[in-house]
Model the fold of this input.
Amino acid sequence: MPVLRGLIDVLTMKSDRPVRRLVAYYVIVAIVVALLTTFFPREITAIAAKGIGDVSEGPTVLADALSSPTASGTFALGSLLGVVITTVMILFGALVLMLPVTWVYMSARPSGGQHNQNVVQTLIFLPLVVAGIVFMVQNSLALAFSLAGVVGAVRFRTTLRDTRDLVYIFLSIVVGFAAGVQSLAVGAVVSIIFNFVLIVTWRYDYGRNMLMTGASAQWSRPLEALASPTGDHQIPDRDLLLSLTPEKANALADRFGRVSATMGKKKKARYNSVLTVMTDDVPEAQKRVEEVLNKVTKRWDLDEIVTNVGKPSEIYYLTRLRKSVPRDTLLTAIHEHAGEAIESATLEGGEPVEDGKDAQ
Amino acid sequence: MESPSRTGKTPSSAARGVRRVTFVVGLAALITGCREAPSARAASLKQVAATREEQLARRLAAAQTDSTKDPPVAMWIMPSELREISGLALTSRGTVLTHDDEIGKIYEIDPKAGIILKRFTLSGLPHGDFEAITIAGTDVYLLESNGKIFRFKEGADGAEVPYSKYDTHLGKECEFESMAFEADSARLVLVCKKVLMKGANHDLVIYRFPMPLTDSTRPTVITVPMSELAGANRWKSFHASDMNIDPVTGNYVIIASRQRAIAVVTPEGDVVRSGPIPAAADHNQAEGVAITKDNLLLISDEATHVPADLSVYPWRK
Done:
């Protein structure tokens, strides 16, 4: 994921605009598919557009109804591996198509709306299950009826808060079906058009009452304030807090508590900013960043290291900047000195202090 | 200032990179390994063909010793793409051409080895109710049930071949499902499945078109009385679903799917014999028939509750 995010950042020049990021994602997927099609045309055609390539499949050994399957046993292992690879590829294909749908689902909410984490996860899982079912059932009426019987025995009684969530569920079923019948190309077209239509209607708040402010504006303002480089770091929208999971809220509360305790309640706090460093190589990053901090900050302390698996680890420092050193200079120095040892460095917090006045 | 080290060991980015590259290369190698090399595939196909032909010869020998039973000596299950298999046409190579019932897609099958050798389509993949196929020299003819005939050359595997169309103008008189080329007299023979004219009786009507087909071509017609065709059988009608020509005797071999019947008729219209097709109970929808030069009877069945198949029997004259 960091690699993908990095690629999207490069393509979009770090733009946060959803349409640009979506286009970048699909461009990357298209390039990967084009490469795969060059090297494995038969396999890709088999999962993306089965039926189109049927004409040139070459010789096919027919099953002999009179004898045991020994006659066609020559291909048994290859066929088994083929089925396994086809299954993995269609499931992976469904996943690749549904990822951007979940991003759109999470981002393009109506004003004041929160996304439902269960739905997000369902959007990922459902097409995989549907694809598996359809892949097994296709061309067999008997299996289809059996499946109807089995599914009929399982009752689904989930009430969705937002009826629009149902549309996403339907889309995930469509993508699952397309993957199952080995026509991922159809699923791709449907999901791509769905995503862009949804983003555009959300962006322009299609059908909105003209007296209301735009949904996208309501959504983006609090985030802009939160991420503002001017240092105005407040969370003006309670919905943003409410959208945090309990774990995230607890973690945030812990950090606030700890930072508050470290800074103290004096008029002039010991530290006035928090430096966050994202890295895949914690020891190296720690060494290099601390060398910079020693040079350019008035004082600093290591607050916390969060080691992650599968994504960059996080190092948090409490810092107090010298007044002569602007925040940008600190970040530039860190980036230059740490180089590739870090993924990113961000500084949140207050104003720098004048040299000498605050020295302790 | 001392900074505490509160972190566990994290793999370096280089190590991660190596692991990722290894994974991708491994995956590519796995996929590549599953693809058979063309030469290896050709060799294994030859091996399968040889084994199956040997097996067929053994079964034929066994069938000769016990001529009272008529089980098939081979039965090849068709893939889903050929679930609507229809007519059969014997090639000079001993293989058969067959086709899809609804689209202009032709398949070549080796009936002794049970291998689909190639597939090609008519240009633009025309849709229609295709019912019969036959070969006349270098031309292949495909018949629609309304009496329209598509003429084209045999194509290579995966090819798309151009075609021309000829209308017999018999679509209002007859529903067709059978066509064969009679090489001896250079005639295209079409058997009427069902006479559409009001008040028509159940006699078997056979049209014969002299080749080449032109706008001025007019067919000659022979009629085989139903009473002669039925003989000792209790058939009230005979809905011909395909016909072919016995390459040894030149007689017309006609099958009827609904009656599960087979009849042999001379070019003059005399019935040589008629009766149920071999293993009649197993043929739910026999749509194609062909006789090979080495005396094998081929019958193709469309898929019903069982998959489509091509059955091979010893041809007893």
Remarks:
- Strands of chain A lie at 60-61, 63-64, 273-279, 297-306, 313-321, 344-349.
- DSSP finds 13 helices and six strands in chain A.
- The interface with chain B takes residues 39-40, 42-43, 54-67, 71-72, 74-75, 78, 81-82, 85, 139, 280-284, 286, 290, 294, 299-302, 304-305, 307, 313, 340 of chain A (CB under 8 Å).
